[in-house]
Design brief:
4-stranded antiparallel β-sheet
Length: 96
């Protein structure tokens, strides 16, 4: 079972389908809603990435487009670099 800390639960506003997506990052922002980056769990079935900004969800065709949109939301380059490395690690380990 997947559990989030109370700190992260406090910042989440939207719904996440953990059967279709793998959580890349939850990035809380001061006085704003958190930004959630999601990657497809099964690339052969789902071919889109998701960005949730509060209750709004937007979908992107590739990881680069997702990270560019997250950068426009005010997320630092370092955090996005870590998300890219986490995604590559998930692919190597077979989680995706």
């Amino acid at each position: 079972m997947f559990r989030l800390s109370r700190y992260l639960q406090k910042h989440l506003r939207g719904y996440i389908d953990f059967e279709a997506f793998v959580l890349l990052a939850i990035i809380p922002r001061k006085n704003k809603d958190a930004v959630v980056l999601l990657a497809p769990k099964y690339e052969h079935e789902y071919s889109y990435f998701a960005l949730q900004n509060g209750k709004e969800s937007t979908y992107y065709s590739c990881l680069d487009n997702l990270l560019t949109a997250a950068r426009k939301c005010g997320i630092s380059k370092f955090k996005l670099w870590r998300c890219r490395k986490r995604y590559e690690s998930y692919k190597r380990s077979g989680r995706i």
